[in-house]
Structure formats: C-alpha cells, structure tokens
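Q: A reviewer asked whether we had any structural model of the full assembly, not just the individual parts. We don't, so I'm hoping you can provide one. Inputs are below.
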Amino acid sequence: MSQDADVIVIGAGIVGSACAHELARTGLDVLVLDDRRGGATAAGMGHLVVMDDNQAELALSRYSLDLWRQWSPHLTADCAWHPCGTLWLAANAQEMGAAQEKQQRLQANGVDSQLVSAQALQRLEPSLQSGLQGALLVPGDSVVYAPNAARWLLQAYPQRIKLLQQGALTIEDNRVCLANGTYLAAPAVLLANGIHATQFCPELPIRPKKGQLLITDRYPGMVHHQLVELGYVTTAHHSTGPSVAFNVQPRPTGQLLIGSSRQFDDTSREIDAAMLSQMLERALSYLPGLVDLNAIRCWSGLRSATPDSLPILGPHPNRKGLWLAVGHEGLGITTAPASAHLLAAQITGSPPDLDPTPYLAQRFEPAA
Amino acid sequence: MNTDANSISIQLDGKVHPVPVGVTVAAALSLRGDGTTRRSVQGERRAAFCGMGICQECRVMINGQRRLACQTLCAQGMIVHTLSSKVIP
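A: Here is a predicted structure for the entire assembly that you could use as a starting point for your response.
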C-alpha cells in the first residue's frame, strides 16, 4: 500500500505540533491534519511551569522546561517568550510550609527555586496585598504565546512537515478518512486532538474541564512574575467540584491575563458569570489594584482531563499503528516538548530519556 | 470661559475644548480631530469602531482611569488623555 507520510498527526495544537516537530527532526515525513476547530492551545494561558504534584508530572514538566529554554532563542518574536518566572504565593503559615516543602522537592530534582520573605515579596511585587506570608520564586518558569509557538514548531521543518486544514472522519488501522472522502495512509497515526480525542477513541478516560480567562488592557509594570496562589496546589487542583484559584500572568504587552477556574461537565463555551465573578473576587483579594483596571475580553476553554491528571502518551492498547498524545489537562503547553520526545522515541524505537510507563494508556486498563 | 448653555468644556490631551452637551468622549475626539484614541501594540492608530462598548478600540484615560470613550458622556471639566502618544501610565 502506498503511504502519504511516515506519520499522520491529527491535531495542530501545541501537542500535535511539538510531536510533528520532533518526528521531523528525527527524519520522518509528517502530515498534520487540523480541522481548525480550535482547542486548549488557543484558550490557555501559555504558562510554562514546573509542576510537582507527583514525580511523573515533575519529570515531564522539568524535561519540557529544559526543551522550551533550548528553543527560546529560536522562537519568532510573535511567540512572545517571556522568562518571567513564577511566584507561588503563600497566604498563611500553612501555605508557607507548603512553599518550603515545594522548595525541597524542586531542589531534590535539580530545579532552582528560592523562598521569598513577606518583605522581599512586597519589593518584588508591590501591587500584591500586604498581608501575604511570603512566596516561592521559580525563576526558570516562563510564558509563551502558544498558538504562534505551535506554528513555529510546524514551520521549522518545511521539507518534512505538511499541514492540511482538513478534519479526519475516521481512523481505520493505518488509514485516515477525511471529511471529503479521501483516504490517507501512514504506518503510524498519532492522535493529538485534545478534548476531541474521544470522537475517535470513546474508550479513553478523558473528561472536559472548563476554564475561563479574562485579559485586561495594557498596564505595564503592574505585575512582573506569573503569580499563582499556593492554594492552587492544595485546593483547585485536587477538587472535583467547581473551583477558582488566583493565577495572574503579565503579558509582554503589559496586559494582565487573569485566571483561573475549573468546572467539570460544562461543555458550553459561554461565560459562566457566577464563576467569572468568583474568579475576579479571588484575584482582587490578592491584587486589590485590579479594581481600577479595564478588562477587554474574557473567554473559556476546555481542558482534557484524565483521572490522574497525567497525559496519555504512547501506543493505543488495542489498535495497532495508532498512537496517543492526549489528556494534557491544564498543562499541555508546558509538557508538549517532553510528550513529543516520548512519542517520537516510542514510534522510532529509540530509548527515551524519560521512563514512559507512568503515561501509558495501559494504566487505565482494568486489572486482568 | 464658556457661556453657551448647550456647551461644556473638557480637557483633551491638555487643551480645553468646548463640546456640545450630551456627546460622548468618542464624539468629542472626532469633533476635535481625527478621533484617535490609542495605539496598537505595533504602534498603529486606533479610533472608536463599534460605538457600543464591545470592540474596546476606544480606550482612553478619563479623569485618571482607563475608560471606553464611546460609553462615557462628556462632563464639565472632564480630563481626557488619549493613549496615542504611546505613553501608558
């Protein structure tokens, strides 16, 4: 059978683009399909952050941050690379304890971070309310404009990567049927279409988790680091009900991107005014000066969440030739590079730099 | 300085201008000149577009606060600064 590429990637978001980029770098011809529906890449914050809820998440995000930093000198200006670091804010003594534990965990894994006293925090971020206990500064974290980073990844290998703006209807073994009836064939088909993956693989344990963001007009100099409450780790990340957490990002333009909210089982894209209001009240409690600023847009997006919040990376358990890079929840822009590395290593049969086991789809299979 | 009952004075970028009672700041900017409210990130001039508070193109400083020119009525003594000089407070 003739083939149209070595690998067909479905989805040109940050994960699909990173996978195509890495596969092309190893010398494979890649055909990327995207139906332009848009997904989490365009809706998210673009915060590149080392997360340490568990060892697998830490390994994936740390490896990814290294790759992002290697890419950064080559990114186009419109990728808005901004190495602003993250300040994890401690509102009380308990959260300061969490900051110290986080510092030790990061240090044990070779990630630089520094504890910041309440007074030093006021000097770093004078707009924050004065009653905070302190913070943990992770200077290696960054910010990027992900839609343009995805485009940069695809355009880096013009001889190897072809992008088709076409939706896939079905995947049949090594063939993909397009909406217009055309069949395309490749030895490997890689599904990287985030929340839409269950359209092809309804057996995948992926649930939409809605988030809302709001962006202000330009106010340069008001915030200098990505600001995240440590309660984000202790509450929002682990709850199953709707929740909000303080998370503010300074864009290079001086705009402030304000999050965050989490809601399961609401797949509408309309703004939930009550959640937005809770989110902004939370933000005001950390940055009282926000009250005088103008918001210019708000929007929503759907994270594709798995039961353990880790992505699904590797071969489909039962379908030969089908590979999965989905379920990145709220961390896909961060973890796209390591995801791509793991997929490319497995597809080409070369030894990966990371243990792929924690991310395999097989972990969700019922025990025999 | 202005005795016409149908007119008030506002300050636009440091200069006092008479404007008719009941007009928006966006209208005042058009009456005064080319209507420029601000500049884009790339430095292009922007002006009121939708006129109904949605497009956000007409952001200006009004009495020290960032406001939409099309949604704000002129008031006697109001101080308006456009952001067209690229200096953002």
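A: Points you may want to mention in the reply: Chain A has a mean pLDDT of 95. The longest helix of chain A spans residues 55-71.
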